[in-house]
Each structure stands twice: as C-alpha cells, then as structure tokens.
Amino acid sequence: MPHTTTMATMLELTDVDTYYGASHILQGLSLKVGAGEAVALLGRNGAGKTTTMRSVLGLTPPKRGSILMDGTEIARAKTHRIARQGVAFVASGRRVFGGLTVAQNLELAARTLGKRAAADGRTLEDVLTVFPKLRELADRRAGFLSGGEQQMLKLARALLGNPRLLLLDEPTEGLSPAVVSDLGRWLDRLREQGLSILLTEQNALFALAHVDRGYVMLKGRITHEASAEELRSSEEVRAALGVG
Amino acid sequence: MNTFVTETVSILTNAAMLFVVAAGLTLVFGALRLINMAHGSLFMVGALTVASLASGLTGGWGFAVALIAAVGLCAALGAGIEISILRRLHDREPLAQLLATFALVLVAADLAQRVWGTSDRTVATPVAGRFSVGGAVVPEYDLIVIGIAAAVALGLWLLLARTATGWRVRAAVEDPETLSVGGTNLALLRTSVFALGAGLAGLAGAAIAPLESVGPGLDTQIIVAAFIVTVVGGLGSVVGAALGAVVIATVEGLGTLWVPSYASSAGYLVMILVLAVRPWGLFGTPDR
Amino acid sequence: MTVLEEKIPPATARPAPRPAARLLPLLAGAAALALLAAAPYLVTVSAILSLEQVAAFAVFAVAANLLIGQAGLVSFGQGVFFGLGAYTVTLGWEHAGLSFWEGFALAPVLGAAAAALIGLVALRARTLYFALITLAFSQLFYQLVEQNTGFTGGANGVFAPVVPAWMESPVEGYLTLLGIAVAALLALWWLYRSDFGLLLRASRENRARVQALGTNVYRLHLLAFTVSGAFCSLAGAMFVVYNQGSNAELFDWTTSGQAVLMSVIGGMYTFAGPVVGAFVYQFGHDWLVRYVSDWQLVLGGVLLLVVILRPDGLAGALRRPGRLRLSGRLELPSRLRGRK
Amino acid sequence: MARFNAQRWTGLAAALLMCGSAAACANAAAGTGGSGGAGGGSGSGGTVTIGESTTLSGAIASLGQTGLQGVQLAAADINAKGGLLGKQIKVVSADDAATPATGVSNVRTMLDADHAVAIFGPVASSVASAEEQITNAQQIPIFLHTSNDIGLTTTTYSKYVFQDVPNTVMEPRAAADYLATQLHGKSVTIATFAPNYSFGQDTVAGFIQALKAENVHYTLVKQEFPPLGATDISSYLAAIESAQPDYVFNAQFGGDLVAFTKQAESYGLFAKTKVIAMYDYSVLQSLGSAAPTGAIGFDRAPYWTDDNSTMSAFVDEFRAKYGDAPSEWAILGYAAVQQWAWGVEHAKSFSGDAVSAALSGASPATILGSPQIRACDHQTELPEYVGTVSAQAASSSDPTHLWDTPAFEAQFDQIDYSCAQMTALQK
C-alpha cells in the first residue's frame, strides 16, 4: 500500500469555501488524493460530500481556496476544461442520456474525450471487454436500463475519457447486493491500473473495503483523516457515520 | 379533384414554411430552454437581406447566393446575440431570457427600419413557372419551398440522429451538467445551436421573400404563428414541429374552405385544445 | 400555515421590526400618496395623462404579478381580462344602456367568471406552456373581438361618450382613478400579506412540497387566477376613463406583455415592484413615443439593461437592505432555481 | 452589504438612464424639430403648432411616413410664404404604433402640452375614432387624410371632424362603377378577398351593394377573409383560384396587397382573372416590374392622372425634397394642411369653432383643385380614381408600371351617400 507522504499528489484542495446562494456549504475544506491512490469521503447526508465533488468539477465553483489537479490550478476553470485535465465523474442517480442508445452514450464519450489519448488510452473495445453486458444492450435506449446497467454505463462512459482521476458519487446507491460486489471488483481493478479515485459513500463499510484512505466530513469540514484500516476500527468514526 | 389538389399543395406549402420557421425555434428551445422571441426579427432580416441583394443578383443562382448570404448573416447575428447577451442570462429564470429576446425584437425593429426603410420591397420569384395537375394549378416555387423544408427536415434528422454534435444537442436537453462533465464545451454548443436556429430563421425569411412584401412588420407577423406550431408539436421536438406545422396548416386550409371568417382563430383554438389534453404538446416532454 | 413556518428559518421568519422600521414604509407611502394627489397642481398636463394611465396599469400590473411573481405563473393572457373590463363598460353602455358606474361594477365580476373558466384549462399547462396557452387565449379573444364587428365594433373599437362628462378633464379623471387605484391596491396588498399570498409564494418555490402538505395547488392557482382576472378586469374598466373607449388591441398579447414588462422592470418579487414598473414604463414609453423617432430602439435597449443588470427589478434598488435580507429565503431563491 | 450597494447603484443607474435618455432625446427633439420655434409652441409667440399622430413603425408604417412627409412639406411651404396669420407653423409628430391608446396619449399631449390647434389624421380607423373622442371634447379640428371609415363621419361625427379622403363607401362604389362601364351588361362571376376586420368587411359589402345599384349581372362565387397581415395566404388563394372567377375584388392595401399579388401571380391567377384592388402608387412602386398588367387599380389621388400645373409643380417639389414621387398619402396629407390653412385665414383665427365654421361648405383651393367640404358631414367632395395597370414601365429608369391613361374619375356625387343618408347614419 502506497503512502500519501511519499507519493505524488493528483488532487489537492486547500481551504476551499463553497456557497449555494447564501448558504455556506464547504467551510475551509482541505483534502488530498495521491497519484494512484483511492480515497473515500465519508459523512452523513448534507455533510457536503457531493458539493466537494461539484467544486472540483467546476459545477459549483468555490468562492475561495485552491484546487490543484496534478499541479494545475482548476478552481476557476470551466467544467469541460477540468474534464479535459483528466477528471472524470460518475454522478449518483440515473444520470445517463435516456433518449440516446447505449452505443450513442458510449460513442459520444469516446468522441468527446477519447480522442485525446487514443494512441495508448482505452478504446471502446477495451471498455466493452470490461463490461460485456453493454455490448448486448448497445441498441437499447439508455433510459430503459436497470439501475445496475446504468451504473455500468456511467462508469464505462467515464473511463472512455481516459481520466487520471475518477470521482464517484454514491456509486452503490440503489444497487442490488450482487451488483454492489461487481462494482467492488471493478474498483479494485481500476486501482490496480493506477487510476486515482475519490469516492463518496453512505455505505462506509463498502467504501473502506476498496480504498487506501478516508476522510470523514461534518457540516462542510473534515473531522477525521486516517487509513482505511484505522477508520474501519475506530469506534468514534463508526458512531459519527452511524455505522452499526 | 381540382380543389383537392390545389388545396393539398397549398396546405403542404404553408406547412413547409411554418416548419422551417418553427424548426429553428424548437431546436433552440430544446438545447437552451429558451423561447426566442427575436426569432421573427431574424426571419425579417433574412427576408430583407434577400430583398436588398436580389436587385443585383438575378435569376435562380442569384437567388441562391442571396439565400446563402441571408442564412450566413442571420447565423452570425445569432452567434453574436448569444455570446453578448443570452449567455449572461443562462442561469436565470426563463422569464428573464424571454424578456431579453423581447427587448431584442424592439431593438431589431428600429434598426431594420434604419437600414432598410419603411417601404415594402419585393423579390422576383426565382422560378416563376407553374404546371397543372388534374386541372389544378401548382406554382413551381411552391415545390421549391417544400423542397427546402424537406432538406431542412432531412438535414436536422441526420444531424440529430447520426452525428456526435447532434447527440450532444439531445443530451444537452436532458442533462447539460453531465454533458459538460464529460468534456463538452456547453457554451460553445449553446452558441452553435443558437446560431443554427437563427440561420434557420433567416432561411425561412429568405425562402418566403419572393412570395411576400418585404418590409417592417414581418417580424411580429410570423412569431405568433411559429409559437403555435412549436407549442402544438411540443417545445424542443423537431418531429413535433413538423407535425405541428402540418396540423396547423391543415386546420387553417380546411377552415378557409369551410368557415372562412373563423379560419384565423382556428390555430389558437387548436393550440388551446392540444394543451388542454396534453399540457406539454404532442411530442414534448413534461417539464422536469 | 405550517408549510411556511417550516420553510423560513426561524431566525429570519418574522423578526419583530423596530418601531421605526415599521413606521418608515407607512410614512413613505403616505408621502408618496400626498405627492400623487397633489400632482395635478404640480406637473404638466401631459404628465397627468401619463399618470392617469399609470393608475390603471399599476392595478393591472400588480394583479398580473399576483400570478407572475408571486405564484410563479407567467401569464401572457391577462390582457383578456383587461380588455373584458374595458368592453364591459363600453358595450354595457352601448347595448344594455348601463351607466358607466354600473358597467364599472360589473367588470370585475365578469373578469372573475371568465378567469375561472379560462384558468380551468390554462392551469393544466405548466411554466412556458402556461405562458403560451395564456398567450393563445389572448390572441383568440383579440381575433374574435376584432371579427365580430356587429357586436364589438370590430377593429374600430367602441369610442363613445360613455365616461361621465366631469371625468373627461385630465385632473378629475386622474384623481378619480387615483382613488380607485389606491383602494384596489390596498385590497391586493392585504391579499399579498394574507396566508393565501404566502401559500402562493410557497407554491412558486416548491410546488411538490405545498402539494404534499395537503394544499391542492391546482385549486390554489385557480383561485389566484380568478382573483387576478377580477382585478385585471377592474383595471381595464379604469382604463376606459383615460382611453374614452375600448379597442380590440386591449385583448392582444402585447397588452398582456405590458403587465409582464412592468412587473419585471419594477421587480416581480415585491408588492410595490409592478407599481414602480408601471410608472417607469409608462412615463418612459410616453416620452419616447412623443419625442424619439427610434423609440423602440431606446425602450428595447433600456429593457435589456434592466433585465441583465437588475434581476430583481428596479424596486430591489429602492428597497432597504434590511428588508431584503428579512425576506431573503422567501423571495430570492428563484436565483437558485437553476441548481440541481 | 457592499454587494447589495453595488446592485442598488446599477438599478438606480438604469432608472436614471431610462428617464435621462427620454429627457435628453426630448430636449434634442425639441431643439432640432422646433425650426425657429423660439417663441415656444403655445401659439402666443411666433409659432403655431399642429400635430400629426400616425403610424410610423410596423407593417403600415410606409403609409404614415409618406403622409407625414406631405404634412411637413405643406407646413414648410406655408412658412416659406410668410406663415399663417403671421405665425410660423410647427409640426409635432409621434408614432401611434397603430394602437388607439397610444394615439390617444399622443393627441392629448399634443393638445394639452404642445397646445396644438389642429390634429392631422392617423392611418388606422380605430386610432382615428379614438382620437376623435379627444378632439371633439376639446373642440379642436381633426383632419383625417388617411383613415377613411364611414363611421368616422357618421357614428362618431362632430363638426370638428374633417374627412379628407374618399370614404369606405366611395372607394368600392367607384370600382364598381368602372367595372359596370367595362362590362356593357355582360354577366360575370366575382370573388372577393379582404382582410378580416371592419375595413375589409365594409369595403367588400360596399362593393357588392354598388354592383347591385349599378345592375351588374354577377354571380358571387367565393368570399375569403384572411387575417390582417397573414404571412401565408396560399390556401385562401387556392380557394379563389379553384372557383375561377372572372374578377376578384380585393380590399387589401399596402404590403398585404403586394404579397397577394406576388402569390396570385405564382398561381397564374392574372391570366384568367382580373383583380380589382388598391393598386396605388406605393403598391405599384413596390411591385416594380412584377406589377399585374391589366389589373384594375384604384387610388385616392394618383399624381400622374392629374395634369394641372399646381399638381406637377408639387410633384417636382416633392421629388426634389424626398427623392421620390408623392404617394396618395403624401398628396392627401398636403391637401389637408392646405384646407386647414385656408380655414384659418378665412376665419382669421386658430380657434376650432371658427375654423370649422369657415370650412363647412367652403371650397378651399388645394393641389387637388377646389373640392367642396360638404356641410352635413365635412366630407371633402373628392373623386376616386380607377384605372388599368399599364403594360409599360413609367420610364427606362423607373420600372414602376402606372396606369393606362386616361384614368376613370368617379365623381363624388355618383359614389357617396347623400347628405340625407349621412344625416340618418349620424343619428
């Protein structure tokens, strides 16, 4: 297991303040994701986990603070520029383009960002090898897929952009136990391939089983930071997260 | 038979014209969630451009050149409007955007009067002939108008169904945020779609110019008709715009035959009836 | 009213205003009223004429804004009721021999009845579809009035000495309209401040929530549409005093659009906004039309600036900062509406 | 707090801009438009003000714009000859956007703020009838030189109203008379086509009535009423075309008539059918070489049919000033100002009562000769002109097709109601 102290930093948030209108959501938030590291962002509903991701993506730009992506400041960049820096996002919920077919969803992703790294990056073929099910569903309208299939499609779409950092927002939400364990396997495989990952989860036990390190958030601030094992065993954290 | 053919061709021509105007409006609504009141102004600019070029460029090719110039000018104007004004209002409620485009209608009316004056102009019909089918007269230019509409319909279908840009436009209707997260430059996409819509308005104006007196007032004449068609078909749906155009043209055409004095109200009645039954139009989607 | 008490954070819900803070708007209102009543003796005749129109349009805009700004229902069809009010007076005089005041009293009743019927259909549509179905009603009425020449006078309208002679002079006409406008605006003010008004604002912010808490939003909106129709119709009847008659264009969507413009220019999230809007728009319009050949260019340009620079309208600028924050939760979130 | 203040300032700036721009432009307009109006517009100094509120924007702006040119030129000519009762005439004008309420607002301002002593007419009849209410109440003469609804001199008539154009009864009657002279008792099929509002309906009804009065043997095969300003009229045209009438009487004017002609041409309607419509100078000029040769046109004051020297001098002057021949709207506007000026000189007063009394029953000299102003309804006894659109362009440099000469001149007493009929309509 690599240690944060020695490895290069992929993503670094420093003293980030983000507002929704007048509400102060992120209050001086700082966190780091190392290159090739998987990090979990834990906390209850409303703690600001999704806002953290939206801040990184430029969807809800921070008012103050710095966000470095592989050394480049992205706190004030446009969302599509951030995506082109190699940040991919798998949102929670049914965020596929329901009116397009599965094939069109995938091709759109491949043609938008895939070209950038086409030489050595993942091709549509590679992704379909990982998710063979999607090949069968190619001509189906994405809106008609099941929750698990949609999750698969969202993940495949994100990977087609050849990201260096993958943001996953509540990936297990609404999935059946079988699909959740599939998801775990895919995550482990992506870690092995050296992808940096930041994921938010309500299901702390799932998250901590597939990451190196974790942060606990409360009311827009980080309250704890530790390795996955420590967090798993900490009574205090378990209580804070409401985990049995 | 005679009446039937004449009536059918005229309904088709009317529908074709309405479709070309409405297609741009509905496309813009789909991708930008914006009702562009200035669509009629761009339509007028298209017609006026052809009218001022037409005297220098004669014949069928001359007209084609003027038509392309009109489309180009309107698309450029559209891009300018989107970048300088509408982009700033994108995150605001739809009413703000609606009023901004309404303000543009006022501005455009006076500017057009400044540039082109108040007198009515005419454009020589590039194809003045006519032929007869089953004893009924069909103007050749009607076929050109129908042809232009068919080309626009085919072009839009190819764009939306077959190209990545088209998929982006459709995806932008559903979930612009996810699209930008995937690396699409939304601002550029919006500008392009608005310019395309404006170009289509210009095309419609240019196509109608040989059949009309071209002068002030064309803008407001067309915009309400375009709204009816777009809303009946469902905002944002190109297929809906086509169907809406046919429905409205048919109702007006048959109304002309059967109840002439109420034909002009028929369009509004149809719109009210459609929305009473399907509050989001025939092919629209309920607002999220 | 549990809905709203939940919505407004307790800290900002109803802070007991300092006595001075409560008195100030009252004093300002009284001063403005005194100024308006004295206006005929202070300003030129042409300004009085504009003021006469403002009196009718202020009622029209505030009534329309009950839907636009308060309930979030952007109607482009309030001209239907404005026109109906005007025609009730003139056609009542012409066909039924009603006096001006009889027609005037009948106008809001007919307006309410028509609004209830139209609302039943129109309110099935939402957001922009609602805007456009109301626009269709506006145009439909316009066409019908213009075509039924025998009954309505067609495009020529009904211009006849229906207004009592003593009201024909600008000063008397204006003072009468001012009195009626103040009474109507007080009634509307009471509605805004009532639970009904609060519920309307709540339904604008979160329709599903209000519905879930047991209010039938469709019925709520139908009631608002009816009330708005009644007051718009009253405003139309007032307009006859200025216009000395009625004409088909009063039904047109451009008339409906005027109410929307006034609300937005003045500020649609406040009660006074549309009144300010009516002032600024009418005076601006009258001056521009009379003295500027490119008046549409200037009007459009200014409108564009207001829309871009002043999302809350001019009334936002005239409001004291404290008040803005006080009602922040309830009145500002439209800005946040874009967020997911 | 700082942010709020910023918003506050932009808001106030916008408000100030609105008022400021209006005021600035107003001052500018007053400064430039008041040509020598140093004495103020009140009529007490060296100037006297007349007002022209008409349609200067939108679809019928061309009628209003040229009408205004006629009025301004007439005032300038009178001023050049020393003015009226020693005063220079100042013309204030405003756009009514074809909306009665705006027309009312304009006229009330012209009367109350500018102290205008006479009002000259709008394009739309609805605006005219609204303005009559105001001028009647304030006892100011109004000269209607464009809108011509018969109702303006009947139901809303007062002694302050002057109708300076052939009215809606006269115009179709003249066309019917001309048709009768062409037919020599032959029976024909006729269709009508008119915008769907009072002007169109009245004109068509008047035409049919006139055909009956002239004992024309006709069969009415089709009547169409498209909406005013309809963009696409092909289905209405198709209906007309399929009825194959010998004649189509069309009550459209201006841009609508131009569009009708273009679309009718594409159906080949002119090959089998003669169209009778207001093919006046403006419409023929817009159509240029696309003019429908052989169609029957009517015009209220075609400059080319009048060969008296006063008219030709006026045409030359108008061309020199505006670079174009005068439309009927310009000619009638000019003549209306001449009438008013004549009335002022004979009454030796600007008062509405005096001018009205002087003009009633008088025959002032204008560029249109000296037609009488009928005492019972203040209708100027103008003829209406009807002609056949020529196959020849006016000249090698001007592609406009005018009419074959000589044109048919329908005399006033042949085409208008009698005074007894008018008085009955006035109630």
TrEMBL record, chain A:
> Superkingdom of this entry's organism?
Bacteria
Keyword Transport listed: yes
Alphabetical list of SMART domains matching this protein: AAA
Q: Which GO terms describe its biological process?
A: L-amino acid transport
Q: Name one Pfam family in it.
A: ABC_tran
What PROSITE patterns does the record point to? ABC_TRANSPORTER_1 (PS00211), ABC_TRANSPORTER_2 (PS50893)
A single GO molecular function, which one?
A: ATP hydrolysis activity
Q: Which UniProt keywords apply?
A: Amino-acid transport, ATP-binding, Nucleotide-binding, Transport
> The ABC transporter domain covers which part of the protein?
11-244
Protein family per UniProt: Belongs to the ABC transporter superfamily.
| Protein known as | ABC transporter ATP-binding protein
Query: What organism does this protein naturally occur in?
Result: Actinospica acidithermotolerans
UniProtKB/TrEMBL annotation, chain B:
Where located?
Answer: Cell membrane
What cellular-component terms does GO give this entry? plasma membrane
Q: Which residues cross the membrane?
A: 12-32, 39-57, 63-86, 98-116, 141-160, 193-211, 223-249, 261-281
* InterPro entries documented for this protein: ABC_transp_permease, BCAA_transport_permease
> How does the record say this protein sits in the membrane?
Multi-pass membrane protein
The main location class comes to membrane
Q: Could you mention a single GO BP entry for this protein? A: amino acid transport
Keywords from the named record: Amino-acid transport, Cell membrane, Membrane, Transmembrane, Transmembrane helix, Transport
Q: Keyword Ligase: yes or no? A: no
- Any one GO molecular-function label of the UniProt entry: transmembrane transporter activity
Question: Looking at the Swiss-Prot or TrEMBL record, what is one Pfam family this protein matches?
Answer: BPD_transp_2
* UniProt key word Transport: yes
Annotated family: Belongs to the binding-protein-dependent transport system permease family. LivHM subfamily.
Descriptive protein name? Branched-chain amino acid ABC transporter permease
Q: Which organism is it from?
A: Actinospica acidithermotolerans
TrEMBL record, chain C:
Q: What is its main location?
A: membrane
Q: What are the recorded GO MF terms, alphabetically?
A: branched-chain amino acid transmembrane transporter activity
**Mode of membrane association:** Multi-pass membrane protein
Residue intervals passing through the bilayer: 20-43, 55-84, 104-123, 128-145, 173-192, 217-240, 260-281, 288-309
Keyword tags: Cell membrane, Membrane, Transmembrane, Transmembrane helix
Against InterPro entries, the record matches this protein to: ABC_transp_permease, LivM-like
Q: Name one GO cellular component term.
A: plasma membrane
Localisation per UniProt entry = Cell membrane
Q: Under what name is this protein listed?
A: Branched-chain amino acid ABC transporter permease
Automatic annotation (TrEMBL), chain D:
Query: What Pfam families is this protein classified in?
Result: Peripla_BP_6
Q: Which domain of life is it from?
A: Bacteria
GO BP annotations of the record are: amino acid transport
List residues of the Leucine-binding protein domain. 47-390
User: What CDD domains would the database entry show?
Assistant: PBP1_As_SBP-like
- The answer to whether the entry has keyword Nuclease is no
Q: What is the residue range of the signal peptide feature?
A: 1-24
Q: Which UniProt keywords apply?
A: Amino-acid transport, Signal, Transport
InterPro entries in alphabetical order: BCAA_transport, Leu-bd, Leu_Ile_Val-bd, Peripla_BP_I
Q: Which Gene3D superfamilies match?
A: 3.40.50.2300
Question: What PANTHER family does this protein map onto?
Answer: ABC TRANSPORTER SUBSTRATE-BINDING PROTEIN (PTHR30483:SF37), LEUCINE-SPECIFIC-BINDING PROTEIN (PTHR30483)
Q: Which family does it belong to?
A: Belongs to the leucine-binding protein family.
What is the name of this protein?
Answer: ABC transporter substrate-binding protein
What lineage, starting at the top, does this entry show?
Bacteria, Bacillati, Actinomycetota, Actinomycetes, Catenulisporales
